[in-house]
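Per reviewer request, we include the raw input and output of the structure prediction for the construct analysed in the revised manuscript.
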Amino acid sequence: MSLTTAEEQLMKYLWKLEKSFFKQLKEQYPDPKPATTTINTLLKRLKEKGYVDYKLFGNSREYFPLVSRNEYFSDHLKVVIKNFFNNSVEQFGSFFTKEMDISHEELLSLKKIVDDKLNSESDD
């Protein structure tokens, strides 16, 4: 399930804070800050989508993410690869390395990551 831009922004703040009361979340926004009702609506939708939950402390709610940033990004990337690259990681990698402005050093670093992954799998 995808998030709207506003929901994703709120999740970024929550991932950064790890857990947060409403006031702390609102303070993360730059001025002019969104209305309290807007943030409450976003939190409600994120809870309904299964991204956020909370613990009650009296009348206050401490919110925390149920989905990690890495899980969200991984799922998001899988959808991009499926929809734009025929579900081919190879096509994605080819596009990424050819169309992005990647330096020689960054390419070598990527190669090392791939080599390390291949070596660790061959050890299994």
